[in-house]
Write a structure and sequence with these properties.
Mean pLDDT: 89
Number of strands: 11
Radius of gyration: 22 Å
CATH architecture: 3-Layer(aba) Sandwich
Strand order of the largest sheet: 1-2-3-5-4-6-7-8-9
CATH superfamily: Alpha/Beta hydrolase fold, catalytic domain
Distance between the termini: 24 Å
Strand content: 5-15%
Length: 510
Amino acid sequence: MAFPKRAPFAALALALPFTFFAACSSSSDAGAPADTGGPVDTGVVTDGGSDGGLLELLEVACNDSVADTYAAPTSVTGAKGSILKCAKDGDVSKDVMYADDVAEGYSGKTFASGARIYRIQYVTERANGKPGFGSAIVYLPTAPAAAKMPIAVVNHGTGGQAGKCAPSQDVKGSAKGGMLYMVRPLVGMGIPVIAPDYAGFAGFGAKDNPPSGYAFSEDVSRSALDAARALQLMIPSRLAGKVVLVGHSQGGHTTLSALAKAESYAPELNIAAVAVYAPLWFSQLSWGAMIGLPDYFQMKDSSFAIAVNIWYHYSHAEIIDGPGKGAELFVPAKRAALKDFFDNKCQVDDAFKALGNTVADFYDPALSAAIGTTAVGGDPCTNADPTAKALCETWSARYKADRPHLTGKALTVPLLVWQGDADATLTPDRAVCGFDRLRADKANLTACVKPGADHTPLVYQASSEVADWVAARVLGAPEPTKCAKDDSALIDPKTGKRFTCNTPPPNDKD
């Protein structure tokens, strides 16, 4: 999608990242019931030895029901990562996991381990500084890779912000967004894995429990880092003290945010490796820029773009400004319908599409006027009206904070970024913005491009290579073959050269 050459954006007439939202990595269908019972897959463990000793070494009680782990606790007490509830779920064999992955396009090594599955609820902290709780699904290998193991935190992509959209409640559905296919090669080689939903999904709507913040770095990074703490508490006697962070799309943003925040928020964690697939690591000023360019975001072809924009702004306001403040961002006539969409839908549906024609049909005109044009150019707020200027400064600061720079220890952590050159969701012209930012920060970066790979199929196609790369860093395995292409292979067909990050807002203004 190209912009017409219209002042003041003629020099920026390339696609915004919002083909990114044409088919974002959704994990469940609109209104689909939550799958809260039963194991991830059918099948029994056939790996020889029931659980490699892991069950006997659990240092938390696991006597709750699966449903209990998603209900709001009576109180939130304990250190960050403390386990509030734990439920045994089921077992899945290495053969079942492998067959399912191969059916989706996985072509890597056969799995050496099956998994024993648990659901937990753990203590975390929200971006507003208040105690919170998160839910997660845990996969313990039945054939551990070593006597002392690393652990992995796997962060999911976009799938709606309502409580029932939590990927761990719909694990089969979450596979469509790649979550399970990030998990399985890791647990399949014997590494314990936790996949958090992020705080706000469990006990959705309960008092003092705002929804999860979409691409809200300060919120989701804490959920991810406290998930690592929680998994460490489950089997501390079997751990080597190394943490791997993995994520796809929105979960790639969570993962990079966690890397950026780890030294200050969880300094005791040894982040040993980070791997992300097609991360949402462009300028978060994009959300405001979209409001400033409503003609380019019409419901007929940008419905998911509009939905994600609403998830972002609504969730931030609910967490920072307080209950009910999310709806106040929108025109009064739309507030009830948008609250219903946020609270109850995991995907765009016809009822949502009928609510308006462009993004401008949703937001309060005062908000649009205050932040739109400024966000497009990444400019300082110069609004003449003091109220508008304050609003502009508030949201500009939020956008900026949601792509934190990597500094300190984060720059020493090995970082692997995979991107598909046929990604129709996070398109190559926008993906290079993330690579450029990471290089500007001087990250310890390995960039890899999978020819012909689209957004979610990238996970199936590159997960074995990610697993091999992780194993080399935390298990002492041989170094895998270097990927054949890096981001220089993200070629602009118009120039024959690597794409340049030249889309509004400017990549260097956050």
